What we know:
Stationary-phase Survival Protein Sure Homolog, Chain: A, 9-stranded mixed β-sheet, two-stranded antiparallel sheet
Amino acid sequence: MNILIVNDDGINARGIEMLIRAAEPYGKIYVVAPKTQQSAVGQGITIHEPLQIDEEPDKFHNVQAWSISGKPADCVKVAMEYLRLDIDLVLSGINDGPNLGTDILYSGTVAGATEACIFRIPSIAISTDFASWEIAEREIDGVLEFLIKGDYLQPGVIMNVNFQLQEHRQSKGIRWTRQGYRIFSAKFRHDDGKYWQEGNWVPTKNLADTDVTAVSEGYISITPLGVDRTIHDYKMLEERK
């Protein structure tokens, strides 16, 4: 199996090395990652300026790698349509910070996996709580084994994985979930004539079967996602026929 690793934290991010180590037993690894931090860029692609694509021969031991000046979705496009890599699975992450609920609309990590979904390649987006690398390192092997050997991966489906929040040092297991809801409340800080957008998440009530609830209760959340955003499984459309 040929496995492509992308991310949104950049080519130097710690999460790539963790994914390489965990994915090596399953096949040949390729890495295409942004040169710089690209968090919260969503599904953006670079079309109004040129892309710089550089091979990184000494970056990772025995792994072909490239860095690009673009975004996570660009990474998959470059791998598939410029480098012409024959890819069977795309892994995106491991992200430094969760991608839960409505976070996925902004997430570059989920965007990389979503671009693979558009190419009909199975994909897994993987995120851990902020700076919780010890959790990711301990849990990633089991998650990949569960999804790959369990034959859960499908073309056109994104498996959005979030490890438990950091107050739960050990996970209680894996929970299949649906997308929950989180609101990011922005605050704008004025500094030297510029405005910086900062903020935090507003506490929001979520049902028991959501990703937000699962990770807060100490579980690893796996949420199957797709690119079709038609609401309520077409129910509204059927009602109007």
